[in-house]
């Protein structure tokens, strides 16, 4: 009986195309002017709820971002290294052109080859210095972020979905066991002193927006923290209105993106 040798073909991953937003100076100024001249009261009417108003404000902010900020299509290769930047990519192109003409001009080929080697060494040194700086500063967050870029480590997301249909009933029975003995509704005590309602000022809202981390991902509302921080002056008034409306009515605005 003869054994047949089977060789598995090498699977190649196609590059992924990603759309990125370019935060240019002109685009940011245009976005700030667009939000500065917006009359937020125009979104209000007699029957407008806090959910409708909040959703309209979020949609309008996203519309202004897409209108004012330019975008760019980039390709991400599965085997690209963190030090493989645009400068290294351009040096490789120059070397390929010089390689085709090395018979006519060998000196140019040697020069471009040397420049490519120096460019790669410089790019690797920059990444190494960033890693050492984060380690020296004892900044575990930046250190882990830099190591994740170098090693291309991505943690697999664990899904919370379960095929057990009886799991919700089990959880309800588990947590409801504490309330079996005391089922009466407590009567609220009368309050003599009426404290003034808690309200947020526009300065507090703006201060909170300026403290946001621009490197964080967008939340359920799909608005980037960089946009909120960059346009904190223009958005402080409308967000203060939403916060105070939510506090006075004891209502959390509903978001269609996160289901609540």
TrEMBL record:
<keyword id="KW-0808">Transferase</keyword>
<dbReference type="GO" id="GO:0003964">
    <property type="term" value="F:RNA-directed DNA polymerase activity"/>
</dbReference>
<keyword id="KW-0548">Nucleotidyltransferase</keyword>
<keyword id="KW-0695">RNA-directed DNA polymerase</keyword>
<protein>
    <submittedName>
        <fullName>Reverse transcriptase</fullName>
    </submittedName>
</protein>
């Amino acid at each position: 009986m003869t054994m047949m040798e089977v060789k598995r073909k090498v699977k190649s991953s196609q590059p992924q195309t990603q759309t990125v937003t370019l935060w240019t100076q002109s685009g940011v100024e245009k976005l700030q002017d667009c939000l500065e001249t917006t009359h937020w009261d125009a979104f209000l009417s007699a029957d407008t709820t806090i959910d409708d108003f909040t959703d309209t404000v979020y949609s309008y902010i996203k519309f202004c971002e897409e209108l004012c900020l330019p975008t760019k299509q980039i390709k991400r290769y599965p085997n690209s290294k963190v030090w493989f930047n645009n400068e290294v990519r351009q040096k490789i192109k120059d070397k390929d052109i010089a390689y085709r003409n090395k018979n006519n001009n060998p000196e140019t080929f040697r020069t471009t080859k040397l420049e490519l080697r120096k460019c790669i060494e410089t790019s690797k040194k920059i990444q190494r210095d960033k890693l050492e700086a984060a380690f020296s500063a004892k900044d575990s967050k930046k250190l882990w972020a830099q190591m994740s870029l170098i090693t291309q480590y991505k943690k697999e997301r664990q899904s919370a979905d379960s095929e057990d249909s009886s799991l919700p009933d089990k959880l309800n029975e588990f947590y409801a066991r504490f309330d079996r003995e005391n089922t009466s509704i407590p009567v609220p005590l009368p309050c003599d002193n009426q404290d003034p309602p808690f309200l947020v000022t526009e300065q507090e809202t703006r201060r909170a927006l300026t403290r946001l981390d621009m490197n964080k991902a967008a939340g359920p509302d799909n608005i980037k923290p960089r946009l909120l921080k960059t346009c904190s002056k223009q958005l402080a008034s409308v967000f203060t209105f939403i916060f105070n409306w939510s506090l006075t009515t004891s209502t959390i605005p509903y978001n269609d993106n996160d289901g609540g």
